[in-house]
Structures are given as structure tokens and as C-alpha cells.
Design the sequence.
């Protein structure tokens, strides 16, 4: 990574910062590529990165209709954990967490990964039983450092918490010290720079308007800048997966919903772990700038909005205020929404499709950011080999037709 002198910084300030070297190129699209990935969010960029790093496939274009990282990658609450219940879920999320732990070194770009620890509060006796079950499952899966702790230990970790709330007392928590957060923009920027350095083309402000095929095999995509050919196509577009799938001639079992979040005004450090309160469906952490980052559930109806709404703020905060009385005196700074695609079992799809050499990665719902490196690793293997590896095998799209659901949200009580 280049270092700049104070004189260079002053010079660029005088010319409106127009002279800095770009972190990634803005190329003119080629006529064709070995692989095209639609979607320049975290999952799409990670797929491209591991195609190059693990398989030497670098004649790749990542096509984005907006700007890099402008979708869910830049619109989430940055939580990272791997303590899932189902074996296949725990495997791919733990792979992602393991990759996050070294991602800054791999990319030579500080993604600000912060393993500050993550608490999932048990505020009902049902959750106590469920989280203790997860502890045992994680031990069998080899997921390290997942443990059950009592309310006194929770209070010690989070002094601002009221553990004796009349409606939602804290009965304990599922604790993963390896969990934490990372800087969402930095993850996207670091992956983009690495992909560009490998010779890949990141093509922004270019909308895919159609998928062209011949004899049941994909041959390229129609875009707002003309036709671009490819041998393999990866669709990694989060909330708009259903629309791209329709262009490719198949239907996905997904629906799109808005997931809302907000941040407070910056305050002094008061919480240095991530806390998820799933009974009341709220979660909170504190950013390096001092903002309280707060999220909740999805809207109750299908939509593509990226705005927040007052009723969702009220619904999320009126429950969190009892557990964290301090936030009743804090002002909201800003709010936003991201478009998430949800499957029936709330688990992702990483799969071949009915169109030859066309692959799909979608359905991450509310848990997408934490999966980015593991998702990209599994999707790259699928695209490179044409068949899923062990991480992706159970997440195929045909499981819904066969009734082989991965009911993570039902089994664990939460899919975040």
C-alpha cells in the first residue's frame, strides 16, 4: 500500500483531490470474458477474487448497474459470527469468519475486522434451551469458542445492560468471542482493488438487461453498454436475484424485503461487544466513531425500498430501550434500508441453474455480510469446477422442490 507525504495531501487538497491514483481501474468492457459476475457487492467481488486467487481465472468482468458496494454491502450492520446450528450453515459461516480473520493481510488493505465478541441474549426459557443446544452442536462441528454464559457474566461484559427487565429479563447468552464486526466499505474496496490488480474489469454504471443463451448454454449478457460475451455467468445481485433469474429463463424461490437499520449520534465508548436480542428482534454494537449501530427485522411486506420508516424505528427501539435504558436519551443520526432476498427456509442458494454454465448465489437474507468471504470461496469453486464443493453442495436451488430444507431460522430461532 502506498504512503503519501503531507505535501502530497496538501497538493491534492488544493486541486480538489483529482490527482490521486485510482484504487481500481474503470475499463471499457471487452467483447467477451471467460467469466462474468453480475453484482459488485461483497459476494460478487469475493467470488471474482477467489476465482483469481484459487483457480487462476482472471479474465473476469464484474458488472454493476450502480456503484461498487452501493447495495446491501454498504447498507448493513456489519455483524460477523459463525455460531449457527445446522452443519452446513456453521461450515460456510465459519469458513467466512476464518477468512475474515486474515483478510486484511490477504488483501493488503485494512478491512478493520474487530473480533470484539458477540452475545446472543436469551430472554425466554425457550431461547435458553435453544442456545445451549447450539453450544453442543458447535462443539460437534468444531466451531471453536462458542459458549453459554449466565446473566452475571453478560452484565460484566455489557455494564449498560439492564438484565432484570420486567418483560425481557436476561437469562444468559450464547457467546462467541471470535465474533465481531468489520468495516463494510473497506471489505468491498479491498476486494475490488485486489481484483483490479489481477487484471479483472470492474464495470460500474452498467445495467444487465438480458441474458443470451444458445442450445441451453449461456453465451453472454445484454447490457446498457451493449452485448458482452462470456463462457460462464455468475448472478450475485442480492435483492434483485429474481429479476436476473427471470432474464435467464428460470424462477427462484425468493422474495425481496427491506431490512432497516439506523445509527445514533456519536457518544463515548459504552459497549465493546456486539449484542443480539432476538426475542425483541433488535441488535446493537458501537462503531469506531462512537455511533450506536442498531438493526431489527425486515418489513412485513415485499418491497424494494432503501429508505427507513418511523414505525420500524419505534418497533425496534421500544423493546431495546428496556434492555439498554441509556439509548432512550440518545438522538438518531441517520437510518436506511437494504433489499434482502429471502428463501423459504431462510438459508442461501449457491447453485447451478437450469441454464448451462449459469450459476446463482443469493438468498442470504439478513445474514449476508458475515458470509462474504466464505460465500465467494464457495461460489468461485462452483464456477471454476462446474460442480459445487462441500461448502455449497447442500445450498442447491432444487432442495425446495425435494423438501430438503435447511431451516436455520426455525431451528435456531434467528437467521441473522
Sequence:
Amino acid at each position: 500500500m502506498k504512503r503519501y507525504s503531507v505535501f502530497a495531501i496538501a497538493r491534492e487538497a488544493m486541486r480538489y483531490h483529482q490527482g490521486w491514483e485510482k484504487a481500481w481501474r474503470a475499463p471499457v468492457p471487452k467483447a467477451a470474458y471467460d467469466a462474468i459476475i453480475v453484482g459488485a457487492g461483497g459476494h460478487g467481488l469475493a467470488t471474482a477474487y477467489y476465482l483469481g486467487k484459487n483457480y487462476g481465472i482472471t479474465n473476469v468482468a464484474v458488472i454493476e448497474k450502480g456503484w461498487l458496494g452501493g447495495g446491501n454491502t454498504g447498507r448493513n450492520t456489519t455483524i460477523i459470527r459463525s455460531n449457527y446450528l445446522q452443519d452446513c450453515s456453521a461450515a460456510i459461516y465459519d469458513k467466512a469468519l476464518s477468512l475474515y480473520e486474515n483478510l486484511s493481510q490477504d488483501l493488503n488493505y485494512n478491512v478493520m475486522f474487530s473480533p470484539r465478541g458477540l452475545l446472543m441474549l436469551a430472554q425466554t426459557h425457550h431461547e435458553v434451551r435453544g442456545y445451549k443446544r447450539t453450544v453442543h452442536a458447535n462443539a460437534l462441528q468444531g466451531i471453536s469458542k462458542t459458549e453459554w454464559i449466565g446473566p452475571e457474566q453478560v452484565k460484566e461484559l455489557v455494564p449498560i445492560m439492564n438484565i432484570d427487565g420486567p418483560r425481557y429479563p436476561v437469562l444468559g447468552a450464547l457467546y462467541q468471542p471470535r465474533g465481531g464486526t468489520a468495516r463494510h466499505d473497506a471489505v468491498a474496496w479491498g476486494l475490488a482493488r485486489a481484483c483490479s490488480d489481477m487484471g479483472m474489469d470492474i464495470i460500474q454504471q452498467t445495467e444487465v438487461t438480458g441474458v443470451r443463451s444458445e442450445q441451453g448454454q449461456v453465451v453472454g449478457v445484454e447490457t446498457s453498454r451493449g452485448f458482452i460475451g462470456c463462457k460462464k455467468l455468475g448472478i450475485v445481485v442480492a435483492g434483485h436475484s429474481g429479476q436476473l433469474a427471470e432474464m435467464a429463463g428460470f424462477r427462484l424461490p425468493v422474495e425481496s424485503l427491506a431490512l432497516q437499520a439506523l445509527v445514533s449520534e456519536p457518544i463515548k465508548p459504552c459497549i465493546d461487544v456486539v449484542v443480539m436480542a432476538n426475542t425483541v428482534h433488535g441488535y446493537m454494537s458501537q462503531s469506531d466513531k462512537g455511533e450506536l449501530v442498531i438493526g431489527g427485522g425486515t418489513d412485513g411486506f415485499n418491497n424494494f425500498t432503501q429508505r427507513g420508516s418511523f414505525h420500524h424505528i419505534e418497533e425496534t427501539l421500544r423493546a431495546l430501550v428496556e434492555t439498554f435504558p441509556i439509548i432512550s436519551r440518545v438522538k438518531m443520526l441517520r437510518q436506511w434500508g437494504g433489499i434482502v432476498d429471502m428463501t423459504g427456509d431462510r438459508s442461501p442458494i449457491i447453485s447451478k441453474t437450469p441454464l448451462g454454465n449459469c450459476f446463482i448465489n443469493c438468498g442470504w437474507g439478513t445474514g449476508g455480510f458475515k458470509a462474504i468471504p466464505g460465500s465467494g470461496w464457495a461460489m468461485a469453486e462452483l464456477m471454476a469446477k462446474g460442480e459445487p464443493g462441500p461448502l455449497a453442495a447442500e445450498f442447491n436451488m432444487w432442495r425446495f422442490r425435494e423438501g430438503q430444507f435447511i431451516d436455520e431460522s426455525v431451528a435456531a430461532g434467528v437467521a441473522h
In short: The mean pLDDT is 92. The chain has two domains: 25-76+185-253+345-412, 105-181+256-343. The CA atoms of residues 141 and 172 lie 22 Å apart.
